[in-house]
Amino acid sequence: MISISLLFLAIAVSIDSFSVGFTYGLRKMKIPFKAIVIIACCSGIVLLISMLIGSLLTTFLPVSVTDKLGGGILIAIGLWVLYQFYKPAKERDLLLHEKTLLNVEVQSLGLVIQILRKPTSADIDRSGTINGIEAVLLGIALSIDAFGAGIGAAILGFSPIVMSITVAVMSSLFVYRAPFRSLLGQLALDR
Question: Any idea which UniProt keywords this protein has (predicted)?
Fold first, then answer.
């Protein structure tokens, strides 16, 4: 059974997927169904791993500590998100352009892949379509933010399987449906 709090947490964890889908929709970039499934699976798997770590912590810590720790982690993440939202625009713009979410380096091939806070940088080959490894990298980058929330949610007693599946579904819906919502944004820009 999915509780309201689990559903709200899944939405909060998946909100980055919405912003990526929205941005890609505005830029008319394509995310094929297979790429959406890959992104959703990455989100679900990373969250499952973090929740298993959180569940493991509950076996070593007393219940009174885990309740406070789980709640504290989720509150800290919430405060961080609020801080990011309300900090000065100039500082926010600098961070948006400079912050690297994922950096993969294969030295033997001389290959460096960076997924920046700017979602369009996931389109490595600049084809206008997210495919294959780009979808995997984007899925991992989108789920990195959810790692701490997964640990906190597991400590608070949320089911790792149910939460992971819910986040995977929400993530795929947000990436898939957000481009249609970007049409509203485009109409607003035309006025």
Answer: Cell membrane, Membrane, Transmembrane, Transmembrane helix
